[in-house]
Design brief:
Layout lengths: L13 H15 L8 H14 L5 H10 L1 H12 L10 H18 L5 E7 L5 H13 L5 E8 L2 H9 L1 E3 L8 H7 E3 L7 E4 L1 H4 L2 E5 L12 E5 L9 H14 E8 L13 E5 L2 E4 L3
Parallel strand pairs: 1-2, 1-7, 2-6, 7-8
Antiparallel strand pairs: 3-5, 4-5, 8-10, 9-10
Helix pairs in contact: 2-4, 3-4, 5-6
InterPro entries: Bact_Chemotaxis_MeTrfase, Chemotaxis_MeTrfase_CheR, CheR_C, CheR_MeTrfase, CheR_N, CheR_N_sf, SAM-dependent_MTases_sf
Function: Methylation of the membrane-bound methyl-accepting chemotaxis proteins (MCP) to form gamma-glutamyl methyl ester residues in MCP.
Enzyme class: transferase
């Protein structure tokens, strides 16, 4: 890694990168490897330009002196938000075919289902969950989905529920008719999630490394492609915190490249990156 790159618009050194990734880690717990050097430059150069600075050292100093003005913008810029509707399709199939039939029996007396999408990004995951639940749960049941993320920008986008048409290319016609509204005029190439889906989802900003002001228990939790960014001790601590909020026998869904193997947690693997809380 070179300290300086003459081709860059702004001076950007290894010291700058180390300061910025250390700051990110202290706040979010996310480990930033050496190969993210260029990514940090690419994502933060817009902020450097907007603030009128000529080098990243000035930006680092600004973050130190005015965290109240810039810190949220900084975290939003360096957070990764790759997602899509029904990503890792087998999870949604398991929910529909296996988990929901069990919950309909188990929760028959109170007729309610509670779900948490932790790391919801721009909303495709919680909306995919909402579709799955609305299609398979009787209409007189009370369904609520909590959707949280660290990035306030993606949360705002998610709550709006508007997407370019190319984002729904993989969704079948029946679902498109039932759950999406086509845009017109200036919104011609966009679609909007129907109100009946949006009204069961609650979007909230949450830092997984800090206190969780959450009440009650969840029947299952999706925390996919989030644990991969943390060290072993943090993964174990997070998994145990999730377990504490899950109902007895509740399920935790994680990403395709993640595992709880060799971590001390109350979970047992029951499917492809699907875990069940099997002890208190």
């Amino acid at each position: 890694m070179a300290d300086k790159d003459k081709a860059r618009e702004f001076e950007y050194t290894e010291d700058d990168f180390n300061f910025l990734r250390r700051l990110s880690n202290q706040h979010s717990g996310i480990l930033v490897p050496d190969d993210k050097f260029d990514m940090f430059y690419s994502r933060l150069s817009k902020r450097v330009r907007l603030l009128g600075f000529t080098c990243f050292k000035q930006y680092c100093r600004y973050l130190q002196e005015h965290p109240d003005r810039e810190f949220t913008e900084f975290i939003n810029a360096v957070t990764t938000n790759l997602t899509s509707f029904f990503r890792e399709k087998h999870h949604f199939e398991f929910v529909a075919q296996t988990l929901l039939p069990e919950l309909l029996k188990k929760n028959q007396s109170q007729k309610q289902i509670r779900v948490w999408s932790a790391g919801c990004s721009t909303g495709e995951e919680p909306y995919s969950l909402a579709m799955t639940l609305m299609e398979n749960v009787p209409r007189d049941w009370d369904i609520k989905i909590l959707a949280t993320d660290l990035d306030t920008n993606v949360l705002s986008s998610a709550a709006e529920g508007v997407y370019p048409v190319d984002r729904i290319a993989s969704i079948n016609e029946e679902r498109l008719r039932n759950w999406f509204q086509k845009g017109a005029g200036t919104q011609l190439h966009k679609v909007k999630i129907r109100p009946e889906l949006r009204q069961i989802i609650y979007f909230k900003q949450l830092n997984l490394m800090q206190d969780w002001p959450l009440k009650g228990t969840f029947d299952f939790i999706f925390c996919r492609n989030v644990l991969i960014y943390f060290d072993r001790a943090t993964k174990e601590r997070l998994a145990n915190r999730y377990a504490g909020l899950l109902a007895e026998g509740g399920c935790l869904f994680i990403g395709h490249s993640e595992s709880l193997h060799q971590l001390d947690t109350p979970f047992s693997l029951i499917g492809n990156t699907i875990y069940k809380k099997t002890r208190l």
